[in-house]
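subagent[fold] <- orchestrator: predict structure for attached chain, return C-alpha cells only, no commentary.
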Amino acid sequence: MTNRVRARFRSNQILALILFVLMYAMCARPAPAQTPAQPPEPPPRMEASAQFTFLDTHGNTSSQSLGAGGEAVWRPDPWTYAAKAIFAQTESDDELSARSFDGIFRASRALSPRLSAYGQYDFLRDVFAGVEQRHVIEGGLSYLAVDTRPHRLRLDAGLGYLFERRPEDEQFDSATLSLGAGYRLEISRTSEFTYEPRFLLTLADADAWKFDQDVALVVAVNTFLSLKLSHILRYSAQPPAGFENTDTIMAISLVAKMKRPR
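subagent[fold] -> orchestrator:
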C-alpha cells in the first residue's frame, strides 16, 4: 500500500468520524419545546482563535503531520473585518510530502439587516499541488438567507480577478465569478457544525473552474478550549500538468478561543 493510499485511507477514516459525531450529536439533542423561535444573540464585537494539530505515526511507515492556524474577527458597526490563515505540512519517511499555506482577509459593510457588500483577498501557496502562488481579489454582495437558531446561512456572489503562478514560470490569470455560502448549525450550547463551499469560475477559460469547501465540527472542552474536526477540500478542474485535481486536509485540532462582548 503506497503512502498516498494510506493517507487517503486515514482521511476517509477521519471524515467518517466527523459524520458519526455529527449524527450522534444531532440525534442526542433534545427535541425543542413548541415555543416561538428565539432571536439570535448578537455576535461578540471581537473574537480570535488559534489552533494546533500534530500527528506522529511509526511502524511500517513513519510520518509526521503538523498543522497550525488562526482566525480573528472584529465588528465595529456597520463593518466586519475577518482574517484567517492555515498552515499544513506532512513528512513521510523523513521526506517532505505536503506543505501548504492558505490565507484570507475579508471586509464587509452592512447595507441592511440581511444584505451586505464585501471585499475579499485570498492567498494560496501549495507547491505540491502545482501552485507556487495564487492571488484572488474580489468584491460582491452577501445575503443572510437564514438567521433563526439553530441555523444560520449566508449566500455570497462576487466578481474578481485571479493570478496564479505555477511551476516553470507558467502563469494563469483571469477575471472570475464566484458563488459561495457559509452555513452554521448550533448543535448545542457547546458544539457547532459549519460548512463553507465556494465555486470559482474563471471567465478566461471556463474549463479551469475551481471549487473549495471547508467542513468543521467544533466541541467545547471548557470556556477557553475546544476540539475541532475539520476537512478541507480544494479542487481544480485544470491543474498544472503532472498534478492531480483534488487535494484534501483532514485534521483533529485543539483550538483556543477568546471573545470580547459588545
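orchestrator: received. Logging for downstream: Residues 3-28 form the longest helix (26 residues). The chain has one domain: 3-27+42-260.
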